Amino acid sequence: MFKSLQIAGVVAVASLALAGCAANEGTPASDLTGTLNGAGASSAGSAQEAWIAAFQKANEGVTVNYDPSGSGAGRESFLSGAVAFAGTDSYLKDDELTTESPLCVPGTGFFEVPVYVSPIAVVVNVDGVDSINLAPATIASIFKGDITNWNDAAIAADNPTAMLPDLTITAVHRSDDSGTTKNFSNYLSKTAGDIWDGEVSDTFPYTTGEGASGTSGVIDAVTNGTGTIGYADASKAGDLVAAAIKVGEFWQGPESDAAAAVIPDSTPVADRSETDMAIDLKRDSTSAGVYPLVLVSFLVGCNDYDDDAIGVLVNAYASYLTSEAGQADAASAAGSAPISGATRERAATITAAIK
Asked: At what angle do helices 136-144 and 179-191 cross, to 10 degrees?
């Protein structure tokens, strides 16, 4: 079996090496065939669409499906064996790490590699307001329900020259289990003092505001509402106003370069395997040019698939996502911050070993 997987891996690597050429010439770059199903984070939906299009163009015998059902649903689907891989904006929990997926050879564990880094934008829709600054304590108070009007003194203090209307705030949060919510909540728990006292998890911790399902649901609710505010992956913000948040003494907008700047300061999660690249982000950075309200979306799957054919497909797809070309494609399509340097090289080494 090992020899056959080695041969399959060579085919997969060859397909990736030829991917750019195939995309331009319109010819198949490999003999790979089959269907690969994944599910998870909706935040990386634009990136997944771009990845799938490029991968299928280079590997015309392969169909890749991705259901943007949310991070929690994606992890659950993978761990139950319903899909071959998951995308998640919050890394695997300790109890999930001990789960034996029916897809994996028993005892071989999971891989977890970062494939997508993007700022989470705090988006607003208020007539007459085309830019806005919001400090962490102000954001926390709005989403907790303590600040309920746009002309509140705390918002005015963040925006001393703005004309803020006497208008009720409708704060929109994710109603589904979401890694975006966990990242948003984690950021506020580290930067807003004692204000954000709810549990940091995939579930929004308060009963205030209005819930919406998925990234698209939040964006739709903010866009179609009046006096609305929400949080979502910056690539989906569209024409909505994205707030600049206070970082130390600076106001920083959700630019991809500023989001990427937080990664080098972050630390690996302790006691993880060699194929698990879970990281704890430095949310309380005070450095200029850093936007610490970010999400890192991880690709999760088996190190060794019970079905060799699925292993070959996951190897090829995951290797493309962690390649320079894959990261460039995501940056172009979704405005994400490419994973680079030693981080990308380690991720590529892990995905190349999938079998």
From this structure: 120
